[in-house]
Amino acid sequence: MSNPHDSASNGAVRPDGEAREPQRRSPGRPRREDRMPVRDEILKTASVLFMEEGYEAVSLSGIAERCGVTKASVYYHFEGKPALFTAAVIRMLQLALAGTRRVLDQEGKSLRLRLQEVAERRLSRIQHIEFEALMREASHYLDDRQRTAIREAEQELHDLLSLHFARAIADGEIRKGDSMLMAHSYTALLMIGNRQAAKNMYASPSELAGPIMDMFWTGVG
Amino acid sequence: MSNPHDSASNGAVRPDGEAREPQRRSPGRPRREDRMPVRDEILKTASVLFMEEGYEAVSLSGIAERCGVTKASVYYHFEGKPALFTAAVIRMLQLALAGTRRVLDQEGKSLRLRLQEVAERRLSRIQHIEFEALMREASHYLDDRQRTAIREAEQELHDLLSLHFARAIADGEIRKGDSMLMAHSYTALLMIGNRQAAKNMYASPSELAGPIMDMFWTGVG
Amino acid sequence: MSNPHDSASNGAVRPDGEAREPQRRSPGRPRREDRMPVRDEILKTASVLFMEEGYEAVSLSGIAERCGVTKASVYYHFEGKPALFTAAVIRMLQLALAGTRRVLDQEGKSLRLRLQEVAERRLSRIQHIEFEALMREASHYLDDRQRTAIREAEQELHDLLSLHFARAIADGEIRKGDSMLMAHSYTALLMIGNRQAAKNMYASPSELAGPIMDMFWTGVG
Amino acid sequence: MSNPHDSASNGAVRPDGEAREPQRRSPGRPRREDRMPVRDEILKTASVLFMEEGYEAVSLSGIAERCGVTKASVYYHFEGKPALFTAAVIRMLQLALAGTRRVLDQEGKSLRLRLQEVAERRLSRIQHIEFEALMREASHYLDDRQRTAIREAEQELHDLLSLHFARAIADGEIRKGDSMLMAHSYTALLMIGNRQAAKNMYASPSELAGPIMDMFWTGVG
DNA sequence: CATGAATGAGCATTCATTCAT
DNA sequence: TATGAATGAATGCTCATTCAT
């Protein structure tokens, strides 16, 4: 067991280029230049695929093929499908967390403006499967450690949002209330962006951001 | 032409007892006993399973087993997995539509109260996978007719909600705005009920209904 | 066992119209007019399909559907697939025997001319699978009685040809030799008509009859 | 791209020992032992089975079992049943082509003697299903590339024969005529060797060669 | 690090067959 | 006569996983 199988860990978050075409490497360890690429590439590819298609629908051979490596290579880097899934989802959540934090931490902008910016960014991305749906499908296959690790990573996102709502309440910027529920309401409303019917109502997905923020801010009453 | 394969149809909706233990039957038509019509039982079981676990995660043998019949029987009644899925989802949507309409059509109650009642009912049910996630997973396997049939059934639900929002706008009961977006916002917020983290915040799922309705009605601003 | 299952028998040979569209009959026994149609129709349809596609490739539901009856009806009329196959093949062979006999028995025509006429008729028909191939595939499933019955029916065809060759030898119309081998050579050469490559060499299949008869009559030497 | 799926290829042709008893192996790569390369063994087994029993009648599990491997192994080496069939049939045709060429290319022997030798060899082999029958059955399942590849391999055999007939015509060794039709007549007559009835007429199949060659050379006239 | 070759379990689907009505 | 509803067995195929090299 000398393999680097630390399924729930995840290396430094590195946004990088798109999947390369499977250029056959010559045998033996490659000279440095493209350091530590394979594990990361697998992770990145897996993230995208799992988010787009769910757990069962994604096959390890599919991932391997897209990365130009073999299935066995994937098994060298990750303990198995559940471990890879865990790592991939966590990677994605941390990316989202970092991005969201960067926007929310801007000084001198109203909360509403910052939330709108977050919304615009998320809505313009290729849409992810709703998180709970993904988890429900996958959780049969995950063990407790894995489930918990993912839940925690997700919780961080809501914690971050909740924190900012709490601050805004303290500042009188928004009405009083349960800041965590506000966080969940916010992310739930963003899910409208996944819906075909809703997307058809506007020219581009990010145009949904305004109307959704209106709903979130003023409600229907 | 001897098979009753009309995948998109759905018999009378009858909520009733759960699947019995799988007592092996010999071939040929069994004497009637009690047994609810098998086709209906399959449909009901399939609805539940697909909603709970997604498309791929549900196997036809699983469904068959739960109904106490063989896989081949399922194939006698439905053309295949996609057809069964289509029928099951539509059945479920029509159930939901009927229930929702019954509540919303009540006279003399404010829209808010009626919406809250709908929310309570839905939140207390075993939760469904988010609809879009389910469709994204399944739609690889569905043909155009099936996709359309499902989409239409779902649209009816939002049409119904939208109609009531439009009326309320006309009556000055709520603020002006895009009634269809309101409908989507409402159902999106109900999805919070699927979230483990959110459920942990309250004693029972239906207690979420109040706070969610507050969010929906007044927003955070 | 009051069913009329006499698998190896075959009713009167009746060339008749093509398969009708499955027009639902009203329940109850139909009034006389179209007497004894179902069994025959099944037999006819089965003949065509088995000859065109082989044994395994043809399903009883396929046959039933084409006849506008149910699978169970097929089972009412025939003991099972092997029995139906046996009856169908024998029916077809007897048809061929009758047709061939009619041509060969013509008075005042040379054997060569009569053989050429037989060849033209056969080549212009939708082509049958080579008989031995069909039998090899099917014989796993047939019992001894069935195998024998088919073999005998086929033998009659070669007996008929052989008889005419023997007569021609006696009359000095053709060279001396094994008349049964001549019969087999003749039918073997006709199989060229089944070959795509050969068919492409001529405008219409029946144009093959001349050249093939030349080969048969004079050889290459 | 990790699978060696090149369905139409065919490795070096090596006639060798039969399949061993299916000793269950544990997963992972087995230590070499003797074992002929598995891919080749599958191919050889498949050739025999398809030729003997047709397309549908042969199951991949049957092939796997005879080779002492699992179905999944067959799928590792071949894309699917159609691909395996294609490879197997082409392998067999190329074997036949090579053998036939070897005999026909002998110097200093009359065409008739060489053809007789080819006939003796073929007739003494376990008999193949008639080729067209096989193709008719299989072609539903093959794609265009596969169909073409097989057709071409078969055409080569007739091209070879046709070439030798053409030469013999030029040399005045045989009568003038369509050399390709001669080739087809020759192979069609050899099919007599498949027939039970014909085989019963002689002590051993290869004794059919003489009489058949007589027919081919001098006809009945 | 990486992979080629293999396995076992499971799945969707089809089919011949049976039997109560 | 005919059929609707059911079964059991088989088939083609995919997938996660393993291991010697």
Please write out the topology:
The structure is a homotetramer of 221-residue chains.
Chain A: H1 37-53, H2 60-67, H3 71-77, H4 81-104, H5 111-124, H6 131-138, H7 144-170, H8 179-190, H9 196-199, H10 209-218
The structure holds a DNA duplex (21 and 21 nucleotides).
GO molecular function (chains A, B, C, D): DNA-binding transcription factor activity; transcription cis-regulatory region binding
Region (Disordered) (chains A, B, C, D): 1-38
Keywords (chains A, B, C, D): DNA-binding, Repressor, Transcription, Transcription regulation
List the defining traits of the structure above.
homotetramer, 221 residues, Tetracycline Repressor, domain 2, 10 helices, 0% strand, DNA-binding, transcription cis-regulatory region binding (chains A, B, C, D), HTH-type_TetR-like_transc_reg (chains A, B, C, D)
Detailed description of the structure:
The structure is a homotetramer of 221-residue chains. Chain A has a domain at 89-218: Orthogonal Bundle (Tetracycline Repressor, domain 2). Helices cover 59% and strands 0% of the residues of chain A. Chain A has ten helices and no strands. In chain A, α1 crosses α2 and α7 (144-170) crosses α8. The first copy, chain A, is elongated, with a radius of gyration of 20 Å. At the A-B interface, α6, α7, α8, α9 and α10 of A face α6, α7, α8, α9 and α10 of B. The structure holds a DNA duplex (21 and 21 nucleotides). Chains A, B, C, D: This is Transcriptional regulator, TetR family.
